[in-house]
Structures are given as structure tokens and as C-alpha cells.
Automatic annotation (TrEMBL):
Its cofactor is pyridoxal 5'-phosphate. GO terms for molecular function: L-serine ammonia-lyase activity; threonine deaminase activity; threonine synthase activity. Belongs to the threonine synthase family. Its EC number is 4.2.3.1. This is Threonine synthase. The modification N6-(pyridoxal phosphate)lysine is found at residue 64. Residues 25-348 form the Tryptophan synthase beta chain-like PALP domain. It is an enzyme of class 4 (lyase). Keywords: Lyase, Pyridoxal phosphate.
Amino acid sequence: EPLDFSGVWRFRALFPFASEGHVVTIGEGQTLCLRSDPVATYVGLRPGRLYLQYEGLNPSGSFKDNGMTAAFTHARMTGAKRAACASTGNTSASLALYCAASGLMRGIIFIGSGKISYGKLSQALEHGALTIQIAGDFDDALRQVQEIARQLGIYLVNSINPFRLEGQKTIMYRVLESLHWQPPDWIVVPGGNLGNVSSFGKAFGELQQLSLLSRPPRLAVINAQGANTFYELYERRGLRWNGGRYDPQVIQIYLKELDAAARRADTLASAIEIHRPVNLPKALRALEICGGVVREVSDQEILDAKAQVGAGGLGCEPASAATVAGLRRLVAEGVIQPEETVVCILTGHVLKDPDATVAYHTDDRALFDQKLGRRGVKRATYANR
Ligand code: F0G
């Protein structure tokens, strides 16, 4: 009975939309919440206060599988024969794997030009999804795939799909379970399309309604500086959910400014290189439920933090390390206290994006310059080099 082996479907009573006969699962969600004292020291927390939720352990190597199993199950219930997504890499890897493993659907993937990491692209190709590179970035790809999916009746698995977010709620259930249902003070999560933060807030709100959680952890969302729309709107322009009476004008004005400046999202953390997060309103709601904050971190901070995670005996990709970098900032600011308990969500495996990692550690000057030096990033400076 495969349902017993999935760290997602163990919690199906908390997202009861699927009949068991439809469930598509390949063992996703068997992940670990691990204490990390070396990284705690790096960010300025007391030993024993930092946990890393290792979502790289999923079948396709990222947290996306938590949502993909739920979306696929729903797609199967609708009788869909084709599923599509736009992706910075991980959603496409996950979609391609679930298509190949289930044999139920043909996968169609839209990627932006140039930025997807080879680890992720190789997964999409190897699992046999139709992979289309467009002239444009992720935001363009998402607009195009939404239009095409609507016209042709293709099932869309991007995180605007609410069933995906239902599956991603289980990341929080597993964190709470690991901590014996003693909620941590903070959960730190990278912000891209803002699906994770939206689903985490929903999970906490529902657990409170069910009297399974007395006080929700606070959420800290970390943007990359080169893709910081959420930070800009929430922290700089004061946009709030405000019981659903948020001002969508503020979002529109900001996006128009981005267009006028012809600014492209740009960060080494390619997974979160997104200017127009589709879940922005839901994310605002999540931060209202949890008393959240948003921060931005530079590519340098991200790579330095990533190397600390690696040296500490875990591994993650750049977008995931944004959490550790952001946490370090929040401790330095005094927003998070050294004795508070924090969980950082490591969303993707270290093997997802090896190029930046090798460039960061190499002694080959040309390789370093080509990948990092020309972007103003400095080499590894930490002790184990
Ligand atoms: N971390 C990783 C490793 C990701 O791949 C993504 C998103 C995020 C964080 C951000 O999560 O969108 O819920 O805020 N990757 C998407 C993709 C966009 O296409 O793979 P979010």
C-alpha cells in the first residue's frame, strides 16, 4: 500500500480531496528535519536552536515533489492527458519525473533562455518531457504557458494550482512532527513564486482552527536581491493583506515601474529569479496569519551561506541557502534572538546546480571569472578552503 510510504499522503486527512484509487505517489516527502550546530554558529544562534529541513531528499531532489504528487493526483481525477509548467528548473524536473513514473500524462515544459541549471534541465530531458525554451525569462514563460494551457485544455502544475499547495502544506506538518509539535519560533523560506510561503501560512491557519497548534511560527521569506519584488512591496512600500482589503494597485504600479526600467530579474540563485510572483496575495495572507517578515540577500551572501551548509554536512542549491543568509541578517538586526528556535527550509539538493558551486571553490581563475568574478562575487573565504 504505497500511501503508507509517502511523507505527503500520511497527512491526507488534512487535505481530503483525493480518493485513494487516484493517488499518484513515488515516495515523496520522506525528508528530515536535522539539527545543525555549525550553521547555527554561523548565523549567530545558540547551538541546538537551528534545524534544517532537508527537502533535497525528495525523489526529484527538491520540495516540488510534495506538491507535484497532489497536483498529479488531481489531474488524474480530471482525466487529463497532458500536464504543463513554466519553470526555473525544479518544477520541470518534478513534472517530468511524475510523468515518466506514472505513465499517465505527457509533460510539456517551458523554460526561459539561458538561466536554467544543467542539473535540472538534464532531469527534464532524461525523463522525456517535451522541453521548450522560449525567448524571454521565467515570467514570460509562465504567461505563455498559462495562455497555451487555457487554450488547449492542458493541466497546469505551476503553483497557481491550488492542489499543489495542498501537498506542500505537509512540509510544515513534518517539521512540526519532528519537533514533537513544539512549534519553532521561526520558519525561514526562500521566496520565488511564493507558493511555499502561501501553503505554509494556510497550513498554520488550518492547524489553529483544528486546535492542533496554539501559536503559529513566524515566517521569514528571503528574496534574492536581484529578484526582490516581495521584499520591495512588503517591507519598503508597506503592502499588507489587511483582511483581504490589500491594495492591488500597489502591485500594479510596482510592476509597471519594473517594466518601464526594463529591469530583468537577475540572480545566481536561478530557482528564485522571478519578478512577478503569482502567489503574492496568498503570501501576504500567510504573513498576516504568522506575523511574517521579508528580507533580501545578495548573491555573495547566498554562496557564502551555501558553503557553510555544505561544510556543516548537508547540501543545498543557491536558492535554498538564501534562507541561511537571510537568517544571519535577521539575527544581526536583532529581529531574531540567539535563543529562539528556527527552521530553514533547504528546498533543493546541492547537485541541482553544480556550476556555481565549482566556480566558488575552484582555483581556476578563468572559470571563476566567467561564472562569478564578472558578477562581483568573491571567492570562498571560509575556514575549510
Ligand atoms: N527553492 C527552490 C530550489 C526552487 O526551485 C523554488 C522555485 C523556490 C525555492 C521558490 O519557491 O516559488 O514556492 O516561492 N522554483 C520554481 C520552479 C519557480 O520553476 O522550479 P516558491
